[in-house]
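Reviewer comment 2.1 asked that we show a complete input and output for one of the modelled complexes. We chose the zinc ion case, as it is the one discussed in the main text.
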Amino acid sequence: MSAVPQPGHVDEIPERSGIAFPLRTGQRLTVIDPKGCQVSDLLAYNVDDTDEVISSGRTLDYAETIRLTTGHLLYSNRSRVMLEIVEDTVGLHDFLLTPCSYETFDHFYPDLPRHRGCFGNLAEALEPYGISSAQIPIAFNCFMNVPIDAASGKLSVLPPISKAGDFITFQAHMDLVIGLTACSAPASNGGSFKPIHYRVD
Ligand SMILES: [Zn+2]
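Response of the prediction step:
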């Protein structure tokens, strides 16, 4: 699904789906969890050169933390600022794990029906912008709760702590194509699938 958002209008991403749209320099994108406990994967590409893409590695390196929230900058693979987090009512997101996919379901949920997940949803939504599935990196996973055990280093995927109406707002520092999902993986979303709302201002 591809659309140009109307400024100030709240749009819905139905459960287990994804969308892509342009976001211009200075515009703000607010990602809203309308029911609570629902993850949304976010990708960003330079609209003029889609080989420039949001980078977990660059961002975590420069931020010196994995706990990204208001005031933090999200960098591209070319070390340029793509997005700034300007408001955040949750303060707990993930930038370590890749979008869920068919293979994620094979690995973690062999007894459940396969689903193409955020990866497949993003690939389809981004294709009209000339972006291939090979260009999909680690996403910024809004509201995803991935604690790390300090002693062992073990990662867990726990239900998001976001409540109905919680949101995170990003400001664009360059002209972007955004990919955004309502995540499809059971563990990431507390075992049920909800929509995501978003607004561009
Ligand atoms: Zn997902």
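The longest helix spans residues 117-126. We note this here for comparison with the apo prediction described in Section 3.2.
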